[in-house]
Amino acid sequence: MEKRTIIVTGGAGFIGSHLVRLLVNKYPDYHIINVDKLTYAGNLANLKDIEDKPNYSFERLDICDFDAILALMQREHVDGVIHLAAESHVDRSIKDPFTFARTNVMGTLSMLQAAKAAWNGEWEGKLFYHISTDEVYGALQFDGTLFTEDTRYDPHSPYSASKASSDHFVRAFHDTFGMPTIVTNCSNNYGPYQFPEKLIPLFINNIRHRKPLPVYGKGENVRDWLFVEDHARAIDIIFHKGKPGDTYNIGGFNEWKNIDIIKVLIRTTDELLGRPEGADDDLITFVTDRAGHDLRYAIDSRKLQRELGWEPSLQFEEGIRKTVKWYLDNQDWLDNVTSGDYQKYYEQMYKNR
Ligand code: NAD
Ligand code: DAU
User: Fold this and answer.
1) Among candidates 306, 291, 269, which has minimal Cα distance to 216?
2) Confidence band of 38 (pLDDT split at 50, 70, 90)
3) Dist. CA 186 → ligand 1 center (Å)
4) What CA–CA distance (Å, rounded) separates 266 from 203?
5) C-alpha dihedral, 59 to 60 to 62 to 67, nearest 10°
6) Who has greater pLDDT, 273 or 353?
7) What's the CA-to-centroid distance between 198 and ligand 2, angstroms?
8) Where are the alpha helices (DSSP H) in the chain?
9) Which residue, by CA, sits nearest to atom 42 of ligand 1?
10) Which domains are delineated in the chain?
11) Per-residue pLDDT averaged across 220-240, rounded?
């Protein structure tokens, strides 16, 4: 098997940790370098099962630190970058847009500049793969339309505006300098290890503890949900077989109204906890809507299916059950994350470096 040295940024986060696990287990001859700053969303406990593998290493770095990223790329002869590190929560972007511009825009630019300097025009065998979101396309109405790779960008939140900007920089580096780049835009992911500020893990945890479920607006907004391991599998296929310069949408054709998904979460959690059906329906609490709340997202991923043969592997009912069970079985992980204890541990560990 060909040897490769790949940086995965944001590998201690939700999607990044699933991707790192997949690559480390599947490609023993690759060197997978996880570059992560360990913000509140990064947690090395997500990678406990692979942290001692010889083909894995971790570098605690800020993607905005151009000098450190360049030095790492040169020292390790990195030939691939899969860039996931980002601020990822829409509600936080409404409160603190500067952090999103810094990490998502300047951080991506810093990664691109470092790759350009390290590769120095020798593009053969190199790839800069940028992980983006369907939110850059804006919002759809309830009319059955889907986001395709040609849909015009129309971001509404500071988060999606920052991701849109980073996508443009990546394409600009392809068009201006000839850097081999790929951008993928994926729909909402769900599964184990997601930080419990996002809808699904937050609500499972609240149901377990019989805390109110804050449903924004009327709960009528629609999201298109994909099991996180299917996203990681798609990234693997696209990294190896995708066409440089191209864009691929990733999604499972799996649209759900928030209120309907919330009912499924209540039913599944109660059933797994042995509570009677309907016991926790009254936790649903309608609250003030998210500012600028996009009505509907829905991805057309037929190009990826047709050209590269990727298919989602899991039916939603199975994926949700697996996910609820994982959070119920891993209460320690949730407690650790909600208390912030994992961060104190890493701060201590890195204090004297
Ligand atoms: P996450 O918030 O769980 O993880 C982000 C990771 O990036 C964390 O480990 C964090 O420590 C790290 N990070 C943040 N700022 C950094 C910096 N300055 N330097 C180095 N590391 C830094 O995010 P996620 O949900 O796993 O999303 C990963 C990527 O996928 C993001 O780019 C996001 O926009 C994109 N995406 C997410 C979804 C989704 O549903 N979660 C869907 C489509 C696309
Ligand atoms: O579409 C891809 C995007 O999906 C990713 O790019 C983002 O990184 C990821 O966070 C996610 O964004 P959303 O805003 O769609 O996810 P979130 O889990 O925050 O919210 C899902 C839906 O649930 C959304 O319509 C808002 C609603 N919601 C969310 C929370 C946290 C609630 O009604 N109540 C809540 O408390």
Assistant:
1) 291
2) very high
3) 13
4) 8
5) -50
6) 273
7) 6
8) 14-26, 66-76, 90-95, 97-100, 107-119, 158-177, 199-208, 228-241, 258-273, 302-308, 316-329, 331-339, 341-351
9) 188
10) 5-193+224-254+295-315 (3.40.50.720)
11) 98
> Distance between CA atoms of 338 and 183, rounded to whole angstroms?
32
> Is 135 assigned a catalytic role?
yes
- For residue 215 and ligand 2, the question of a CB distance below 6 A is answered with yes
Residue nearest to atom 20 of ligand 2 (CA): 199
**Which ligand lies nearest the alpha carbon of 61?**
1
Cβ of 134 below 6 Å from ligand 2: yes
pLDDT in tens, 295-352: 999 999 999 999 999 999 999 999 999 999 999 999 999 999 998 888 877 677 666 5
- Joined together, the tokens standing for residue 35 give 């570059």
Q: Does the beta carbon of 214 lie inside 6 Å of ligand 2?
A: yes
Residue 130, ligand 1, Cβ within 6 A: no
Least confident residue range of 51-60, 164-173, 340-349:
340-349
199 lines ligand 1 (CB under 6 A): no
- Atom of ligand 2 lying closest to residue 258 CA: 23
Q: Supply the pLDDT for residue 1.
A: 65
What number is the average pLDDT over the span 4-31?
Answer: 98
Other CB atoms within 10 Å distance of the CB of residue 266: 24
pLDDT over threshold 60, residue 353: no
Is the pLDDT reported for residue 21 higher than 90?
A: yes
> What single-letter DSSP state applies at residue 55?
T
Q: How far is the CA of 307 from the centre of ligand 1 (A)?
A: 27
Q: Which residues pair with 6 in a beta bridge?
A: 32, 80
The overall average pLDDT reported for the chain is 97
What spacing in Å lies between the alpha carbon of 51 and ligand 1's midpoint? 19
In DSSP terms, which residues pair with 133 in a beta bridge?
A: 186
Mean pLDDT computed over 268-282? 97
CA of residue 231 to ligand 2 center, whole Å: 17
Look up 79 and say whether it is catalytic. no
Q: What percentage of residues in the chain have a pLDDT greater than 90?
A: 95
Residue of 87, 90, 203 to test ligand 2 pocket, by largest number of atoms within 8 Å of CB: 90
pLDDT of residue 347: 73
